[in-house]
Amino acid sequence: MTARVDDYHVRRKVELWQGRHPLQGRTPRPGDIKVRSNDYLCLAGHPHVIESEIAALRAGGHGDAVSRVWVHHERDITREFEQRVAALMRAEDCVVCASGYTANVGLIQSFATRGAPVFLDMKAHISLHEGVVSAGARPVLFRHNDPQSLDRMLAQNGPGLVCVDALYSTDGDLAPLAELVEVCERHGAALVVDETHSFGAQGPDGAGLVVAAGLAERVHFRTVGLSKAVASRGGLVVSSRRNIEYFRYEALPTIFSTSVMQHEVAGFDAVLDIFEREDWRRDKLHANHAYLKQGLDALGYNVSASKTQIIALEPGDIRQATTLRDALEKRGVFGAIFFPPATPDKRCIIRFTVNCGLSRRELDRILEVCDEIREEVGMAEWRSTKRKPASQANPLEVAPKSGNAQRRLGRSRILNGWLHNGQFDGKAGADIHLRAARNRTAGVLNNHPAE
Ligand SMILES: Cc1ncc(COP(=O)(O)O)c(C=O)c1O
User: Fold this and answer.
1) Ligand 1 pocket residue status of 172, Cβ below 6 Å
2) Is the CB–ligand 1 distance for residue 121 below 6 Å?
3) What are φ and ψ of residue 352, in 5° steps?
4) Is residue 411 scored above 80 in pLDDT?
5) Does ligand 1 come within 6 angstroms of the Cβ of 127?
6) Residue-range domains of the chain with CATH
7) pTM of the prediction?
8) Side by side, which strands form the sheet with 93-97?
9) Are 309 and 286 in contact (CB under 8 A)?
10) What would the pLDDT profile of 91-144 be if each residue is shown by its tens digit?
11) Does the beta carbon of 100 lie inside 6 Å of ligand 1?
């Protein structure tokens, strides 16, 4: 036990991090740009959400604050919300959990049997791995987003639960859901898809990527953490009526831990109203992502893994990552640093999470900063830069030679060219801007209040 604590205090904190935990960066000041929240649709301060929560608090206080297996209220608004989510996600039933983490742990703990194989994409969320530990099941890892690798593992180990994230939280990569479903069906395996980052942000009315792909009837379980587009805390499991009833009364974190409170459920329910009514938030989110990704790509950063809303810059080890983080923060751009155990040792990242409230001016400022710091952070030497697919723009040869030259120009020729010569296909985004502007005038675009 002492050795574990020493490993943190001596080897990592003193030797690796030079006395400062990597999470201790600068504190943002007013006017700084924050691209590190998961509040993708800027709903944390939405008046409809706040008012719904206040009304529920006034009507019933904190309620009974009990585990989800007990229902003490005459009107169970949690059950009404569960049924609404099930309809949205084209499933038979749903159960609310205390968090996305406990939804995943509880699901694997209650469905996997001791010693049975559970197949995990190598990048699947840590809570899915924890579920395997909790069940005493046998983890079998397959290569990230590689259905053939899964196919081989299933052939060697026999069927079991297969766990993937729909949208990977570190780099914005999407799971090849249709191919994974086919492999699972061929082997008689059950698929678990974690929709934590896609719920609200993808699919019709925010129903997620399984619905968007028309696979709702072929995916056995979906889980959701309500800490991203729902901008709250809580979780969900969605499946058949039979599976949900079993989960509700058998999953240990559901039985032995207190569930979310009534006013929180009222807030979730209000968020679903906004998912339905305000499509423009998703449109603007995706337009913002496309703009930032294309700009970073033109500057030479390897952002090829990013398919939607999450963009990772991958400088390398923890020292390179803190250098990049500090260079960005010094100039008022705040992403999130990820390092072991969230990433391998040499693949630490700074993650930008885009949201629908970012203006074109803010996006351009992020690009200007990323342009200016390329030499300072040694971008050309990063392993991720060297892996950048050849098909993508590689402007390194034409980049100005020194940081001073860049500063004299203000923006490098690359960024100027990209911004002014219409290299960005911003047509789709232009319409969305107009709609967003109209909505802003109507007072419904909340600026982004959460970290
Ligand atoms: C993919 C994924 N699943 C589950 C979780 C856990 O969700 P929660 O924060 O609601 O516990 C997270 C992150 O927070 C996540 O990124």
Assistant:
1) no
2) no
3) -105, 125
4) no
5) yes
6) 24-41+280-441 (3.90.1150.10), 47-277 (3.40.640.10)
7) 0.88
8) 93-97, 235-239, 221-225, 190-194, 161-165, 117-121, 138-142
9) yes
10) 999 999 999 999 999 999 999 999 999 999 999 999 999 999 999 999 999 999
11) yes
